[in-house]
Queue: 2 jobs
Job 1
Amino acid sequence: MHRYANIYSFYISILSLFLFSFVLYTAWSQPYIITSFLRWTLLIILAVIFILALTGFKSTATKFSRSRSIITIGIASMLLIIWFFLQFLSYIGGKELLQTVESPNQEYTVHFYSWDAGAAGTFGIVGEIDGVWFDKRFYRERHAEVLEVEWINDRTISINNHQLDLEMEEIYSN
């Protein structure tokens, strides 16, 4: 049992390293925003890795087993630091909900926020489409305070006289 916990925790930590790298990349590239559901799922994966790695310390099957547990705990600790960084990123930049609109066929739910970076940056309006793992930022207009939203049809939206086809995944950013 202890030997398998050691091996499973090692391989799960390696796979999680790739998963966290992808999530960190999507957090860094602007169009996608990590949802709280994904952040908490990643934390549960980290807890499983820590529990299996600590259980794997009891394995004395090979000389490499203790080293593998130490490597696994090191990787999991690094991933935990990345998780805290992702938590920090989610709270940066004061966003205030302006309006939530749904498409006429209820296929798209769009949230519009006003954002203000304070003295270090600028202000404007962003539009985000709901998702389970990632929210997609499809509209960003700097120096805008007024929001005028109108649905043209089930998939086309007009925001401050900018028409975007959501099915074609058009993005507006200035």
Note: The mean pLDDT is 78.
Job 2
Amino acid sequence: MLIEQQITIREATQQEDSLIAKHFYLMWQDIGVPDDAINPNWLEITLQFIEQARRDLFYKAFLAEVDSAVVGSASCQLYSGLYPNVFIPEYRKYGYIWCVYVEPSYRKQGIAKQLTSATVNYLKAIGCTRAVLNASPLGKPVYESLGFSNSNAMQLDL
């Protein structure tokens, strides 16, 4: 008999930044990035990034819990852009969603969708006009189900 588990989505605290960083590391491993391609100082680098994003870019993270155990997370912040933003915020104020991660044994239960929805709602609340993310092959159907569309971003491996 399958017992339905209660999934709780909540805001992460600053004390949980290391857990968010661990999920970020595990996400890269899951999509096939070899360990030797990841900087050994990944934890410190990620924690510094989160600290700066919290200070300057309205960073917020959300956690998914099942039976009081954290099984997933997602982060979001204002998108700082790749070039100068010359637009007024009412026209273009992008939010960026990153590190949507769910532990393997809890996948395919709608947790990533709930985490992503929490980030979208937060970005709306701070006045963002668009949410942007980079999807892994596994994540793409989740994001498409929430209304995300493919963008015109193109890339060339060098």
Note: Residues 7-145 form a domain with the Aminopeptidase fold (CATH 3.40.630.30).
